[in-house]
Amino acid sequence: MANMSLHKVKMKEVDPVVRSGNFEEVAMGYTLEEAMEEATRCLQCKHKPCVSGCPVNVRIPEFIEALAAGDIETAYQVLTSENKLPAICGRVCPQEKQCEERCVRAIKGEPVGVGRLERFVADYYMEHFNGKQEKATTNGIKVAVVGSGPASITCAGELAAKGYEVTMFEALHELGGVLVYGIPEFRLPKDLVKKEIQKVLDLGVQVHKNVIVGKSITVEDLVEDGFKSIFIGSGAGLPRFMNIEGENLNGVYSANEFLTRVNLMKAYQFPYTNTPVNAGDKVAVVGGGNVAMDAARTAKRLGASEVHIVYRRSEEELPARLEEVHHAKEEGILFDLLTNPVSIQGENGHVAGMTCIRMKLGEPDESGRRSPVEDPGSEFSMPMDTVVIAIGQTPNPLIKNTTVGLSVNRKGCIVVDEESMETSLENVYAGGDVVTGAATVILAMGAGKKAAEAIHAKLTQQTQE
Amino acid sequence: MYEIVSKKKINEQVEMMEIKAPFVARRCEPGQFVILRVTETGERIPLTIADYDREKETVSIIYQVVGKTTQMLSGMEAGESLLDFVGPLGKASDLKPHKRVLGIGGGVGAAPLYPQIKKLHEMGVAVDMILGGRSAEYVILEDMFKEVSDNVYFATNDGSKGIQGFVTDVLKTLLVEGNTYDEVIAIGPLIMMKAVVEITKPLGIKTAVSLNPIMIDGTGMCGGCRVTVGGETKFACVDGPDFDGFQVDFDECMLRQTFYKEKEAHACRLDQQKPE
Ligand SMILES: Cc1cc2nc3c(=O)[nH]c(=O)nc-3n(C[C@H](O)[C@H](O)[C@H](O)COP(=O)(O)OP(=O)(O)OC[C@H]3O[C@@H](n4cnc5c(N)ncnc54)[C@H](O)[C@@H]3O)c2cc1C
Ligand SMILES: Cc1cc2nc3c(=O)[nH]c(=O)nc-3n(C[C@H](O)[C@H](O)[C@H](O)COP(=O)(O)OP(=O)(O)OC[C@H]3O[C@@H](n4cnc5c(N)ncnc54)[C@H](O)[C@@H]3O)c2cc1C
Ligand code: SF4
Ligand code: SF4
Ligand code: FES
Ligand SMILES: [Mg+2]
Predict the structure, then answer these.
(1) What residues bind [2Fe-2S] cluster, as annotated (chain B) (predicted)?
(2) Do B23 and A241 count as a contact with CB atoms less than 8 A apart?
(3) Residues of A in Cβ contact (< 8 Å) with B228
(4) Has residue A163 been placed in a domain?
C-alpha cells in the first residue's frame, strides 16, 4: 500500500541564519530511511506521466521502485542509464516545471520528490559503492568536444562509452562550465561536481584544459588534426549589461564576474585564496532568474547587510527555481518587484546609489506574458555600494568569429538541425546553451546526448562507406 | 602543467621566463597575452607574450614583481611548472606597413612593446624607440630594442640614463626637431599613455595604446575588463588590449584599476591559513 501522505518527506536544511554566514550546502539530503519512505509515495503509474516531463526521460518509477525496496545499486543503474549526472540534476533541475509537475500525486498535495530521490541515490551510490567504470574498447575514431559544461560532458561520455577517442577542450582551468563557475557551492558542492564529472571521464576521455577554441586552436585546426566530428558545447557565457549611466563604476559587476570570483576562484576564502571580491554592504542584484538568486545569496554570505533583488516584473514571473526564491526569502533577501534601474550614481568612481523606476504590468503580449511598462514619475533612488547585473547571457562570439561557414541566428546562437544537432558545417555539431541561449542543465545534457547519437550514426555510416 | 624552461632576472624587480606551452606557441602573434595561475589557491593574472618560439613550443613572459602573484611567480625556478597557462588571448596588434613608427615603452611596458617593434622591423618599417623608467636599472630590454630600431632614446626620473624627465619630454623634443612618424605605439602606465596622447592627439599623430585592466577569464565571459573607448563599452580581453589612444577614457581606466588596492595589499602582507 502506497504512502498516501500529501507532503514530501521533509528534507533537512541548515538554519537560514546559520547558513547565510557560510558556503556550506543548504539542503542536507535524505537519510536512507527518509528516502525509502518518500519512495513509497510513488504510485508506480503505468502511463508514467512524470517520465514525459523529464527532458532526458529518466525511468522515474523504475528507479524509485528499486529505491523503495532498498536496492540502491539497481536504482542507480536505472537512473544513470538515462542521466549521467544525477547528483547534479537532483539538485538543480527545475523539477516543479518538469518531472514533478506531471506527477499524479501533485493533483492533490505535493508531487513525489523525484529530484530529492535522484540526488539521494546518486550521493548514496558515490559514498558506498563507487564502482569503477569499464572503458570501452577503442574504435580509433577521434572526436573533439569543445567546452566541459553539462552538454559537452554528456556528449563526451556517451561517445567514449561507444569506443570513440574523445578529446575535450576547455577554456578555463576547471571542468564543469556553469556548474563550477556559476552555481554556488551552497547549492552544488564543487567536490561533488568533480567526482560526478570524473566518473564520466573515466570512460576514457582525454582532457585539455586552458585551451580556447577560436584562440589557442580553431575548428579548422581540429579537422586538420584528424578529428572526424566536433561537438561545440561552449555555453552562453557572454554577460549582458543594461547600457545605463554609471555601469562602469567600481562596484558594478556582471553576475558572471561576481560568481566566477566567488565560485571558480573561491574568493570567499580570501586571502587564503588570492582572488579578491568586494561585495559591499548594500547590494542590489538586477534580474529574477537563478543567476540573480545565486548572486544575491552569495552577496549575503560575503557579509552584505542588505541585499535586494530588483526585478521588473512581478513575483509570478520570476524565472528562478521555486526553491531558490524560497531559500532567498528565508535568508532575508529583499524583493523589489516591478522595479527597474534607470541609472547608477557614483562617488569617487565607486557606486553610491541606484535610481529605479516603478513598473506596471501591461497587456499580455504574443507569448501571453504581461510585459512591464514604466510608471511615469515614479523614480526613486536607493543608496547602494554594489550592483550586480544578472539580466541574461548570450553565446560568446569567439568560435563563430573564427569559424568560416558556421551559421548563427540573430541572437548569436549556433543554428542546428533539431534532429541531429548538426550545424551548418558538416560533422560539426552543437548543443546546450550555445544553441538555445541560457537554459537549463538537463536540457544541455539532453542536447549533448542527442548529438552523440547523431555523431555515432553518421560516423558509423561514413566508416562503412 | 607548464614547465618553466628558463628564468632570467632583468633587474631588481623585473624577470623573464620562458614557458613550455604548445597550444599558446602554435598560434600567438605580437600584441597577444596569456593568463596564468601559479598554484591551486592562486589568482589568474594576465601577462603579455614578450616573445615566442613555435619550434620549441615556448612563450616568453616578462613581469614586474608588484604584488602577491608576481611574487609567487618570482619564487618559481626553471624546471618547476606553472599550474595554468592559457592563451593566446586578445587581438593581435594591427601592425601596418608604415614608413616610420615611434615606440614608447614605460617601465615594464617595454616588454609587451618588444614583439610589436620586432615584427615591424621584420616588415621593413623604420622604428625609433623611447624607453623610460624610474632610474637606469628600470629601463629594460635596451639591447633587444637596439637590434630592431634605428634610434633608442632614454628618459629616467633621476637622470641616471638619458634625459632627466619623462618619455613625453623626449617625444616633444623629437617632434620639435621635425621628426615625423606615421604612428606612435605607447605602452606603459596609464598615466604615461594618457600623457602621450595629450601630445599626439592635437597633432593628429595616430597613437595605439595597450590597456591593462583587471582581468579574470580573458575570454569575454566576465566583463570585468570593460573600458570605455569612443564612448562605447569594450571588453579589453577580447576587443583589445590595443586601442586607438585618441578614443580611450583613461581616467575611467585608472579608477577601475584601483578597485582591489586594499585587498591586494592585504593579500601581500598575510601568511595565509586555510579558513575553517
Ligand atoms: C548562476 C547560474 C545558475 C544556474 N542555475 C541553474 C539551475 O539551478 N538549474 C538549471 O537547470 N540550470 C541552471 N543554470 C543554467 C545552466 O547552468 C546552463 O543552462 C548549463 O550549464 C548549460 O550547459 P552548457 O554545457 O551548454 O554550457 P556551460 O555550462 O556554459 O559550459 C560551457 C563551457 O564551455 C567553455 N567554453 C566556452 N567557450 C569555449 C571555447 N571557445 N573553447 C573552449 N571552451 C569554451 C566554458 O568555459 C564552459 O566551461 C544556471 C546558470 C547560471 C549562470
Ligand atoms: C593584457 C595585460 C597584459 C599585461 N602584461 C604585463 C606584462 O607583460 N608584464 C607585467 O609585469 N605586467 C603585465 N600586466 C599587469 C599584470 O597583470 C599585473 O601586474 C599583475 O596582475 C599583478 O598581480 P600581483 O598579484 O602581483 O599584484 P597585485 O598587488 O595584486 O596588483 C597590483 C596591480 O596590478 C593590477 N592587477 C591586479 N590583479 C590584476 C589582474 N587580475 N589583471 C590585471 N591587472 C591586475 C592592478 O592594477 C593592481 O593594482 C598586464 C595586464 C594586462 C591586463
Ligand atoms: S533529470 Fe531532472 S527532470 Fe529528469 S527526472 Fe531528474 S530531476 Fe526530474
Ligand atoms: S507520476 Fe508520480 S506517482 Fe506516478 S510514477 Fe511518476 S513519480 Fe510515481
Ligand atoms: S577578463 Fe573577463 S571579460 Fe575580459
Ligand atoms: Mg594580485
Answers:
(1) 222, 225, 237
(2) no
(3) 248
(4) yes
